[in-house]
Design a protein that fits this description.
245 residues; alpha/beta; Ribosomal Protein L25, Chain P; Alpha/beta knot; six-stranded parallel beta sheet; five-stranded mixed beta sheet; 7 helices; 11 strands; 33% helix; 24% strand
Length: 245
């Protein structure tokens, strides 16, 4: 069933407008009496029935409140070094499907892509739209936030409150991801930093370690940046019991 995010606090009767109303009426061609799932601004999930369609507005009424249980127990933040091409589109979509609450694009030393000013703003706007569509598809209870492109120092400041901060580092040969997750099983918030194609530089590694980030190995094989992102997120969710356990 299709899910929509309604940008107002929950009420037994609500109105869907804008592009979502267009999608309901013109793309999906839904009719009065059909049902949709919604998540309101105050994060109430509900099954609603289309009561009427007037112009570019769809009026919906409450059928049944739904339990808001689609979010991971562990709050996840993904910091992703800017990759080449359209890989960040893919990373955003899959990370949202898996359950991240925040995605921070990070400009690192080995990033080939350089995003600044209006170009960066347009990219972030695009990624935010991808995040919203992925949240609808995955039946999320929130629309994850894609933050502005950040420096490493800005990332460190933004993650000061995170209990466990993980740096996937291909040179790490002593500490594996499984051990770190086992040692921090009670962490309620986790930040993950994945480097770009060229990896994390030595200076960045030293800086992050000095600010409480733990470097981990993801195994013997070198993963592409977009693969490392998905693998690490999946491992964290599995360790926290989110994958059906």
């Amino acid at each position: 069933m299709h899910r929509f995010f309604v940008r107002e606090n929950f009420a037994p009767q609500m109105t869907i407008t804008g592009k979502d109303a267009y999608h309901i009426t013109k793309v999906l061609r839904m009719q009065v009496g059909e049902q949709v799932q919604i998540v309101s601004l105050d994060q109430v999930s509900a099954l609603m029935k289309i009561a009427s369609v007037t112009g570019d507005e769809v009026s919906i009424v409450l059928e049944e409140l739904l339990p808001g249980v689609n979010e991971p127990r562990t709050k996840l933040l993904l910091a992703q070094g800017l990759p080449k091409g359209d890989k960040f589109d893919f990373v955003t979509q899959k990370a949202v499907e898996l359950g991240v609450s925040t995605i921070i694009p990070v400009a690192l030393d080995n990033c080939v892509v350089q995003l600044k000013g209006e170009k960066a703003e347009k990219k972030v706007s695009r990624w935010q739209k991808i995040a919203e569509e992925a949240a609808k598809q995955a039946k999320r209870d929130i629309i994850p936030t894609v933050a502005p492109v950040s420096t490493l120092a800005e990332l460190v400041m933004a993650t000061e409150h995170i209990q466990l901060k993980i740096l996937a580092y291909e040179v790490e040969d002593k500490l594996g991801l499984r051990q770190v997750l086992s040692d921090n099983a009670e962490a309620e918030s986790v930040a993950i930093l994945i480097g770009p194609e060229g990896g994390i530089s030595k200076d960045e590694y030293t800086y992050l370690r000095a600010h409480g980030w733990q470097s981990v190995s993801l195994g013997r094989r070198i993963l592409r940046t977009e693969t490392a992102c998905i693998a690490t997120l999946a491992a964290v969710l599995y360790a926290s019991g989110d994958f059906g356990g």
